[in-house]
Structure to design on (516 residues):
């Protein structure tokens, strides 16, 4: 159901003072620390508060001391209401434990945390963000020495320690920032120049600067703003303008999403409405966007409107494969719910496909060891070989812009050329409400539960995978059913190269099979 006000600006003002008070004085019992696919998240108050920040920071400090990890830890966050405060709390706890902290004075995009770790300037990071979630939400995630999202094994250790400290707050160590700075335990640093300079070795900014395309980029009120400014300045991109560059923690300038909430999702048509209109009206040929923490991308073109992440990933993969050297990695990574068209493109270039569970953490080893040419997920996350091991929305926006400038063609047109070669993909995702107990039962389903099922949606079942939900493979089609890690819903993903009608059949058959 589409909210009646979807795509319009909110008429209600978010009370920031109440949210700030909730952070320091949550009402009722607060939730336990629970790391999902990317950190602990929750609504300001019971879901995420100062106590959560203190407990998680102390857990990380304990872990580092036990394992002898005494290098600097980068602490920061995006432009959310309590991101800076959360970072400062973490810095106070870490420094009280004798650990050195880098605490930038500006907001830090998620890919920059990864970049700083892989560059060797810090050994780990604590990142205060809730990605593109509503402004009322907050979160905290940990990046270890590999620069990527922490593994499930590591996050389980942090969870256990953090929940112990929630129950025993007297064991949390904490000093003032002033004292920490006097002791030389907290410092600032330039996080913009190194990242932007290195990005110039991955993106051909000369081609972009010489292009006649009219270009706009927006950070959607997020941490990417000063990075885009530096990119435009350093590489003399006179044809690139910044739009919707206001920074305000209530994100009032973002139109409502499908459910009537403010959600800074660059892949959703509702919050991207102003940018779609800019391109449609002919003001710009290309509009790039990244979410508040800069790890997801959005792309709007004059001819194609809002480009689906799956389509953009295919265009980026084809471009990367075409220009890659013989020494380049021979595999491509994608998550379970990402388009199978990537498989067809990869095969054409002699590349293998590594299909992983949902979550960018499953790409970390492949990217770190330079085994993956590119890694992507349908929720608008991607990275490339010899770069960061986190999703990088800034890189993606710049790469898509390079592709348009290099080819002289619209991203939508390039995708149509790929479908002409490999077949047209029909893809969708449908969310169905599910109570926690239903979700728990669903998570326990195994492939063996479907051993007697030989056909599905009128086709022979080739394989059933149960590593993350249940995925049913058919000839040129598939269906994936998985429980959300953060919401009370079961997600049904489906794709086919047959027809729109058969896609509808896949979804209806999936709902019947899983009683949704």
């Amino acid at each position: 159901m589409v909210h009646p006000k979807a795509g319009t600006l909110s008429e209600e003002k978010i009370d920031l003072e109440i949210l700030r008070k909730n952070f320091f004085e949550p009402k009722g019992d607060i939730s336990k620390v629970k790391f999902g696919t990317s950190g602990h998240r929750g609504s300001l108050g019971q879901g995420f508060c100062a106590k959560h920040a203190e407990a998680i920071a102390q857990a990380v400090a304990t872990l580092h001391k036990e394992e002898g990890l005494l290098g600097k830890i980068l602490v920061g966050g995006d432009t959310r209401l309590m991101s800076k405060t959360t970072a400062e709390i973490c810095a106070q706890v870490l420094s009280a434990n004798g650990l050195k902290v880098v605490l930038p004075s500006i907001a830090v995009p998620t890919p920059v945390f990864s970049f700083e770790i892989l560059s060797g300037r810090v050994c780990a990071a604590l990142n205060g963000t809730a990605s593109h979630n509503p402004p009322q939400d907050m979160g905290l995630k940990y990046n270890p020495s590999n620069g990527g999202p922490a593994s499930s094994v590591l996050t389980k250790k942090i969870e256990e320690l953090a929940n112990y400290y929630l129950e025993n707050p007297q064991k949390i160590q904490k000093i003032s920032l002033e004292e920490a700075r006097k002791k030389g335990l907290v410092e600032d640093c330039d996080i913009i120049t190194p990242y932007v300079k290195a990005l110039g070795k991955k993106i051909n900014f000369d081609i972009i600067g010489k292009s006649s395309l009219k270009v706009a980029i927006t950070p959607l009120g997020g941490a990417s703003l000063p990075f885009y400014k530096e990119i435009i300045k350093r590489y003399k991109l006179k044809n690139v303008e910044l739009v919707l560059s206001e920074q305000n923690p209530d994100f009032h300038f973002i139109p409502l999403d499908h459910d009537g909430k403010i959600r800074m999702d660059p892949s959703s048509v509702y919050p991207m409405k102003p940018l779609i209109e800019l391109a449609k009206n002919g003001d710009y040929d290309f509009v790039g966007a990244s979410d508040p923490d800069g790890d997801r991308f959005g792309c709007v073109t004059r001819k194609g409107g809002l480009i689906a992440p799956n389509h953009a990933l295919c265009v980026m993969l084809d471009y990367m494969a075409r220009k890659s050297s013989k020494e380049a990695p021979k595999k491509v990574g994608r998550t379970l719910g990402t388009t199978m068209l990537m498989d067809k493109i990869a095969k054409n270039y002699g590349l293998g496909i590594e299909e992983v569970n949902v979550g960018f953490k499953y790409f970390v080893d492949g990217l770190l060891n330079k085994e993956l040419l590119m890694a992507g997920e349908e929720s608008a996350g991607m990275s490339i070989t010899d770069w960061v091991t986190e999703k990088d929305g800034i890189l993606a926006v710049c790469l898509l812009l390079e592709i348009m400038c290099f080819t002289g063609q619209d991203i939508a047109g390039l995708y149509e050329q790929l479908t002409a070669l490999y077949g047209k993909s029909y893809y969708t995702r449908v969310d169905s409400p599910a109570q926690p107990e239903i979700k728990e039962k669903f998570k326990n389903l195994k492939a063996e539960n479907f051993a007697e099922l030989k056909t599905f949606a009128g086709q022979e079942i080739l394989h059933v995978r149960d590593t993350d939900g249940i995925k049913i493979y058919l000839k040129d089609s598939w269906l994936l059913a998985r429980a959300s890690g953060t919401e009370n819903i079961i997600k049904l993903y489906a794709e086919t190269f047959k027809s729109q009608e058969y896609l509808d059949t896949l979804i209806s058959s999936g709902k019947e099979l899983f009683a949704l």
